[in-house]
From TrEMBL:
PROSITE patterns: ASX_HYDROXYL, EGF_1, EGF_2, EGF_3, EGF_CA. The keyword Glycoprotein applies. This is EGF-like domain-containing protein. GO terms for molecular function: calcium ion binding; heparin binding. One of its GO terms (cellular component) is extracellular space. The keyword DNA repair does not apply. SMART domains: EGF, EGF_CA. Disulfide bonds join C90-C100, C108-C117. It comes from the Eukaryota. Residues 1-46, 47-87, 88-118, 120-158 form the EGF-like domain.
């Protein structure tokens, strides 16, 4: 076998042109394209422009520059990296878990606002909470929670992380009211009322007919309308 790759031209030499490499084969030879080139014909290869064909691996925020047999990636202004991976540059520090997503721009974590995510977002005053009318919104740094109003109790659902479901507390049934035993407790939404309407009217009321609208506090009877402070 004659190794045509040892010489160029003539009957016993190869005819591979530039951008190729001669590879000897049994009874002949082949012109193999160099890296970054594609075949034009049997003896010629032309350079592949990865930038114009879109076959490069540059970051979306990088500029592709074609070179002989290859290409080069350069991060655009406002980004840093090797060109294959470019990250935005923020002159300010993104605080409270914020992330620099574009040059000079922080994307804040939920619950924070500001150029550097430095300020707490008050969801309560901004009306961005999910609290029910039966609950009070309580703002916290980076979040909030819902607290049931007096007369309601919390029945949180498993997937209800920032919103409390508050249902009416029946003080009459659970005995948490403070009315005199002779009065009738009537439960209402968010509270309770005291009434004597269950006692029949009589010209000569007996001890069993007596009804008082006073309250019982720590074993003592407090007249209706009086203001006291528990011990």
């Amino acid at each position: 076998d004659i190794d045509e790759c040892q010489s160029q031209g003539g009957l016993e030499g190869h005819h591979c042109h530039s951008n190729t490499r001669c590879v000897n084969t049994p009874g002949g030879y082949e012109c193999e394209c160099l890296p970054g080139h594609r075949r034009l014909d049997r003896f010629n290869c032309v350079e592949i422009d990865e930038c114009s064909t879109g076959t490069h691996q540059c970051d979306p925020h990088a500029t592709c520059r074609n070179t002989q047999g290859s290409y080069h990636c350069l991060c655009q202004d406002g980004y840093t990296g090797d060109g294959y991976k470019c990250s935005p540059i923020c002159s300010q520090t993104c605080l409270n878990g914020g992330e620099c997503v574009r040059p000079g721009e922080c994307q804040c974590r939920k619950g924070y606002v500001g150029n550097s995510c430095e300020s707490d977002l008050d969801e309560c005053t901004a009306g961005l909470h999910n609290c029910q009318p039966s609950a009070v919104c309580v703002n916290m740094p980076g979040w909030y929670y819902c607290r049931c109003k007096p007369g309601y109790r919390s029945t949180n659902l498993p997937d209800n992380t920032l919103s409390t479901t508050c249902t009416d507390l029946d003080e009459c049934s659970n005995g948490s009211h403070s009315f005199h035993p002779s009065a009738l407790c009537v439960n209402v939404e968010g509270g309770f009322q005291c009434t004597c309407s269950h006692k029949p009217l009589s010209d000569n009321p007996g001890p069993d007919d007596e009804c008082k609208l006073s309250c019982m506090l720590e074993g003592n009877e407090i007249e209706n309308g009086m203001m006291v402070t528990p011990h």
